[in-house]
Amino acid sequence: MSKKKILIRGAGVAGLWQALMLARRGHDVTVAERTAAPFAGACSAYAGGMLAPYCEEESAEPLIRDLGLRSIALWREAYPQTQAAGSLIVTQPRDRRELDRYARMTEGHERINGNRVGDLEPELADRFSVALYYAQEAHVVPGPALDFLVEAARGAGADLRFGEEAVDTKPDWTIDCRGLAARDALPELRGVRGERLLIRTEEVRLERPVRLLHPRFPIYVVPWDDNVFMVGATQIESEEAGAVSVRSALELLSTAYALHPAFGEAEIVEFGAGVRPAFPDNLPRVVVNGREIYVNGLFRHGFLLAPALAELVAAHVDEGASHPEVFVEDRLER
pLDDT of 33-87, one tens digit each? Predict the structure, then answer.
């Protein structure tokens, strides 16, 4: 393996994992990010941080599961604060068919009774008599995880330049991780809006992400630091970021209350919405055009897929390796 000069465009979770992986392999890595402040306006800043490859099988291809399982291993190797406590799926008794459907469509779970639910999450004891437990899943708190990636990449020798969209380094390889901003080269990309709610309460303790299934308003609640919980689930075909709609706010709040009434007394910390890049089939792609590589279309799986995609790209740079379900070659006009 020879040392190569590599320019990475974009410093969201995908670009940072590319930088970390390649710098640790001994390459000369420069990261160019157009925003002066890290993560300003990036969809990575609005993520939930769930690493749930089995749960994603409900609506995603097996490729997402396979890449996600590899990513969990990479997160745990690199980031000590990765929390490998699994995921819990619950539902109200009237919606039990939703749980049965979810179980049929996903792997990697154990069907547990109310006593076991209470063992895993004492706050939910006596509230749910049956659940699905995905023991191999994990989660990270996005803000600290992104900060870690910045410092880890720098510690590995990468040069991170914020406020610089273009850097003339005459690289051997350029890796584009700009998300929707890369539509100048990837016109198939579309934006998918995701809305989230942050609430704070000392009345509820959760150790792992919990998903409450509902025919119309399913949600997930992810425990973060300092008694903060991220509540999300919305997926809207829109490219407008910023404020959360009244309808989405009501749905998120009411369903969080249904998960645990104490959430009704929680402090609202923040409403926010980000726009995630996706291809028409919602699958990620590594598009290779000569010495340019575009890593994009991570959809709502940015934290879940970024490490595994970085490993695949590093193998391509070092050895010319490819992946038949991910790599697309010579699709762009120069």
Answer: 999 988 887 888 888 999 999 999 999 999 999 999 999 999 999 999 999 999 9
Quote the pTM value: 0.95
Tokens of 41: 């306006």
Residue 76 · residue 82 · CB < 8 Å: yes
* pLDDT tens string 181-223: 999 999 999 999 888 899 999 999 999 999 999 888 889 999 9
Alpha helices for 123-212 (secondary structure H): 142-155
Q: How far is CA 37 from the centre of its chain?
A: 21
Q: In a 10 Å sphere around its CB, with 0-12 CB exposed, 13-18 middle and 19+ buried, how is residue 78 labelled?
A: middle
User: How far, in Å, are 41, 253, 275, 324 from residue 51 at the CA level?
Assistant: 22, 23, 19, 23
125-158 pLDDT, tens digit each: 999 999 999 999 999 999 999 999 999 999 999 9
* Whether the Cβ atoms of residue 87 and residue 207 lie closer than 8 Å to each other: no
CA distance 179 to 195: 18
Q: Which domains does the chain have, with CATH numbers?
A: 5-47+141-184+280-329 (3.50.50.60), 87-135+191-278 (3.30.9.10)
